[in-house]
Specification:
This protein has 16 helices and 25 strands. The protein is α+β, with helices and mostly antiparallel strands. Strands 9-8-4-10-15-18 form a six-stranded mixed sheet, with helices on both faces. A four-stranded antiparallel sheet has the order 3-24-19-20, with no helix packed on it. A three-stranded antiparallel sheet has the order 2-1-25, with no helix packed on it.
């Protein structure tokens, strides 16, 4: 009778009970599958909020403030569920309870997941300064245009720091049995926050403290990358003085110290981004070190002035093919025609291209005029949209930088982002972004640097895997485009086409919803109340965003709008209002956000298409979460559609899947074996890689090393995955065999067991019919990284389904 091997594709993130495909291969005695596995139910969460602090974000921050209690309640007070039916009851678990009292769930019930009792909550802003340019003001005390990617701890009640955020972030650490284990849950500096009410209040005040006085060219993605991932963050970007940029000397160890204290090596990490605009910052070293120029009011070598003193000069256009085929190899910048080799065909194409031979200024032509945008066609406020199509180049960091940052074990340092060579004359040749992986990704490191002299690149690998890193964006997208995720909180490929188009990498917008198109002009197919130049008294009839409006090419059309709870008088405010005639430096703004009487009174708020952040969300798959910044309603506070309740619910739902016991996708015993009084062990291995900094050894723990052949294959797989040899000691955990319906969860041993549901009984793995469970004693393996290897054989005709 033939047998087949069933390879269990088990990841560290379970979505309820996994239903991944199972493949059949020929029998073999070799290790057939390895995958990272969490040791226990995740019991630490590091939650980072990336909040846009540009003008007009105040109203959105206020809505987030109201949603904070829902977020805290969702993670710290999960619902109690009936032990038999596994359905929620009208009760919540308490983080002040313990396993013995079911975390204060009523008799006959238990928590959906163990309440989080060890959590860090930090905030960063979207402001990283000028990146070598000069758009953002740095001379005003009221401005905070460069927070450097560091934690923002400002008490919104009146300035200063929030007293509960002693490390510039909040550390939730209530008194309970879990936190008595000081090795796994060391007491945070200052003792942490021990009251739910104090935690919510401080978090709310810190959200409001972010304010809306930051840089108008937001670096949302780069700020996150800088705080969590960049191995050697720059201290400051020197003024390039019209030449090539550099990232300066030195490393920002103040940031690294904050990172090391905030980010634990074995926590679930969730980044929640709140923004009403697209990611809009340049890579200073792009374009041979001239990427910074797109963040400058005065573009180098441009003589086309915008008119008024101080408004600067315009940027060069892209070649004519860019408008229709931005992915064409002939799409490039007209600027490259000034310094190219005239003997080459490529150079001649640029110099003869119609876009590059026309001057936008009557009576002026030649260098500084030909190939540049007209004064009204290159407002800095809208420069960062559809850049390849308009400029022939895109100076932003590629999306893969951020996807790799959330998923890859190794990332580049500053030297390997843009490899450089120096010519004999001293000029630098700076290659385009390569992103060559060199250093251990701090997100997946066991120990992080904190001060000068500490190693910043070759860090020991930690226990966190990419499946424990989540990225949620509450951004500019119509709520209607997220309805496809209503049933299971997941967007399909068809949903994403409506949000991002068929292929954003190839600039193919086929299938995109018009509200998500970035444009300064009116978009075809969208509703409008008469002409887009209609007076401000007409809001329009489009239910999503009101209507298209005359931006005078100084603003983008909206993705969505929503009613403000309180009207805003814009007569005394310019930068944070949209109904002041001078708000966009133009006469008579006619945005469909203003009161019907024509007064400078704002009654609606808006969000622009957040294309780049949502591209990262899509690339992360199960670990990406999309939500709309435009609330469905702000009147009925008790309704689940109020404010950012839907966004918070989506985030909590996705994170809770990790906190719930992880299910195996398929049973590892046959029906016959399941019925045995003494069932056989399942053919799986659990390997533990020890953290050398803890000082533990296999022998000292009473554990054995795996078989030589298993260890060899395991190390080969690890080297292939990480790009380097990993010589950490590997131990094999013992398997405790238990019968159906039993578990080893409360044992104090260094063991694991395979548990499954017995007929007519509830599962010892909660909502799972079968699961792999670690005994409580394995918590002593501090910062260990666990890997599961399974080879399971079933005879023909034998069922491999879960018990009924």
């Amino acid at each position: 009778m033939n047998k087949s091997l069933v390879l269990l594709a088990l990841g560290v993130l379970g979505i309820g009970c996994l239903s991944r495909p199972v493949g059949d291969v020929a029998p073999t005695t070799k290790v057939a599958f390895t995958n990272d596995q969490t040791q226990l139910a995740v019991d630490k969460v590091d939650l980072l909020f990336a909040i846009d602090n540009s003008a007009s974000m105040g109203d959105k921050q206020a809505i987030l403030k109201e949603a904070v209690p829902n977020l805290i309640e969702g993670l710290l007070e999960p619902p109690c569920i009936d032990e038999e039916t596994r359905t929620p009851i009208d009760a919540k678990a308490s983080p002040f309870g313990n396993r013995e009292d079911r975390y204060r769930c009523p008799e006959g019930s238990e928590p959906l997941f163990k309440p989080v009792t060890d959590m860090h909550i930090g905030i960063i802003s979207s402001s990283l300064g000028n990146m070598g340019g000069n758009v953002c003001r740095t001379d005003a005390a009221s401005k905070r245009t460069n927070d450097g990617g560091k934690l923002v701890n400002i008490d919104g009640r009146g300035g200063g720091k929030d007293p509960k955020a002693t490390l510039d972030f909040l550390a939730w650490y209530p008194p309970n049995d879990e936190n008595k284990d000081k090795r796994r849950h060391p007491t945070p500096e200052g003792g942490g926050v021990q009251s739910l009410e104090e935690l919510a209040a401080s978090f709310q005040n810190m959200v409001v403290g972010v304010d809306q006085n930051g840089c108008g060219l937001e670096a949302q993605l780069e700020s996150v990358y800088r705080f969590l991932v960049q191995p050697d963050p720059w201290v400051a970007i020197p003024d390039p003085n019209g030449g090539q940029a550099s990232l300066g000397d030195g490393i920002d160890f103040e940031l690294l110290e904050q990172r090391a204290k905030f980010l634990r090596p074995d926590s679930l990490v969730a980044v929640v981004m709140l923004t009403d605009e697209d990611d809009s910052s340049a890579d200073p070293l792009a374009l041979n070190g001239f990427g910074w120029a797109f963040m400058s009011r005065d573009f180098p070598n441009s003589s086309v002035k915008r008119g008024e003193l101080g408004l600067g000069s315009t940027a060069p256009r892209g070649t004519s093919v860019c408008a229709s085929e931005p992915g064409s190899p002939d799409c490039t910048s007209c600027a490259f025609g000034a310094d190219c080799d005239p003997t080459t065909e490529a150079c001649q194409k640029i110099r003869q291209d119609p876009s590059c031979t026309e001057s936008p200024v009557p009576g002026k032509d030649g260098l500084g005029f030909d190939g540049f945008f007209a004064p009204a066609d290159d407002d800095v406020n809208v420069r960062f949209h559809r850049m390849k199509q308009r400029y022939g180049v895109d100076p932003q960091y590629p999306i893969r930088r951020y996807v790799d940052g959330f998923t890859k074990p190794r990332v580049p340092d500053r030297a390997t982002e843009h490899p450089e060579t120096t010519r004999p004359d001293g000029r630098r040749d700076i290659a385009e972004y390569a992103g060559t992986p060199k250093c251990t990704n701090p997100l997946f490191a066991a120990k992080l640097p904190q001060q000068e002299g500490d190693e910043t690149c070759d860090l020991p690998k930690g226990s966190r895997s990419p499946d424990l890193v989540f990225f949620a964006v509450v951004g500019g997208v119509p709520n209607g485009l997220l309805q496809g995720a209503a049933k299971n909180n997941r967007l399909t490929d068809a949903d994403w086409v409506k949000i991002l188009g068929k292929n954003p990498d190839a600039y193919d917008d086929t299938g995109i919803d018009e509200h998500m198109l970035q444009s300064v002009g009116a978009r075809a197919g969208l509703r409008r109340a008469g002409d887009p130049d209609a007076p401000r008294s007409v809001h329009g009839s489009d239910e999503v965003h009101g209507r298209e409006w005359n931006t005078n090419k100084r603003d983008l059309q909206y993705a969505c709008t929503f009613d403000l709870v309180e009207e805003r008088d814009c007569s005394s405010t310019v930068e944070s209002c949209d109904c002041n005639d001078d708000a966009k430096g133009q006469p008579s703004s006619n945005a469909p956000l203003c009161k019907n009487d024509g007064s400078p009174t704002q009654v609606k708020a808006k969000a622009y298409p957040s294309i780049r952040p949502f591209r990262v969300v899509r690339a992360l798959g199960e670990r990406g979460i999309a939500a709309s910044l435009c609330p469905l309603q702000l009147t009925d506070k008790d309704a689940p559609t109020y404010g950012y309740k839907p966004a918070v619910a989506a985030i909590v739902d996705r994170l809770s899947q990790v906190l719930i016991t992880q299910c195996l996708p398929q049973a590892l015993r046959t029906e016959t074996e399941r019925a045995m009084e003494e069932p056989p062990p399942v053919p799986c291995l659990v390997l533990a890689q020890l953290d050398p900094s803890v000082g533990q050894t296999c022998a000292g723990l009473g554990l054995e090393a795996p078989a030589e052949e298993v260890l060899r294959v395991f190390r080969e797989q690890q080297a292939k995955e990480n790009g380097i040899e990993d010589d950490r000691e590997v131990c094999q955990l013992k398997q405790k065999v238990v019968r159906a319906g039993e578990t080893c969860a409360k044992d104090g041993s260094l063991e694991w067991c395979y548990v499954e549901k017995a007929p007519g009984q509830r599962s010892p793995a909660g909502t799972c019919p079968q699961a792999l469970i670690f005994a409580d004693g394995t918590a002593a393996l501090t910062n260990a990284r666990f890997t599961l290897q399974c080879i399971n054989q079933f005879s023909e005709g034998e069922a491999a389904n879960g018990a009924n």
